[in-house]
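Progress narrative, Year 2. Work on Glyoxylase, beta-lactamase superfamily II from Brevundimonas viscosa advanced from sequence curation to structure prediction during this period.
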Amino acid sequence: MTFHARLAAAGLMLAALGAGACSPEGGRTAEGEAAGAEPIAASADVHAFRIGALQAAALRDGALALPANDPEMSPWPPAQTAVLLTTAGVQDGTIHLSIQPLLVRDGERTVLIDAGAGGQMGTENRLPASLRAAGVEPGQVTDVLISHAHGDHIGGLTAGGALAFPNATIRMDAATWEEIRVEPRLAELTRLITPKVQTFAAGAAITPAITVVALPGHTAGHSGFEIASGEERLLYIGDALHSSIVSVRAPELRNAWDADSAMAIRTRAGLLDRGVRDGLRIYGVHFPFPGVGRFKRGPDGFSWVPEGGEVAPAGPVAAAAE
Ligand SMILES: [Zn+2]
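Result:
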């Protein structure tokens, strides 16, 4: 089985164990009220930060290490990937992808963006512990937003044959929900989450601060999320770009994991252009932990500048983005 097939299959399997306390469904409040909430505790697996007045946290779930020269593991052409890695200073010939769902508090809503792999694909299933380390019980999550239906994003929706976030509404694009419902290997997942699923369309406001952004190509319903508070905004890019090296430096490179390669390439190029033009703060769910930073354009093309990295962020915070 190729890695791609395994990735797909993993999306399809249901993992194990979970539970949770309870808490009421969250109501809507104006943005900024989270400023009074108890701060999210930072730790090795929790990167707490702010988006304007909102509290947010990158929650480490696990990591994937893909040998660049193994076409069954890497989605990119081996020779070009090797050059890109070496140029970026990566000496082990390995594509390192992190997995870090994003937690956002917006008023009384506690929103988790993507649910991690749930231990599939050999990952560590650290999300439940990371969430608790951030001071959030699974039952306190009011909304889980799903970017797309691959295993490293939906694997953590269930645990032990039960909903991992028992009080959360599970939100996704209608096309993503259809992909899950028609897949026989996801029948048990479908049965468990059906009462909790609500579909959205691009442009929908999930909370006062969080808006759905269509980023098609990786899958048909692949969605990003823009989180805005005051003059600040952050764009969660899902799997529009997987690698902070390969996807950023060579966005035109065909990625075998993309369902519609031409559209995915257009989406990547558009994101990089807009990111630089608007100085957008970006959240890469698979970029090196914690995945917060900005794109930069140089003479040799685009590069990734992690927040707090050695290179100064390019441009002001994106007040001008539409
Ligand atoms: Zn992914």
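The chain has eight helices and 17 strands. Residues 150, 152-153, 239, 286 surround zinc ion (CB under 6 Å).
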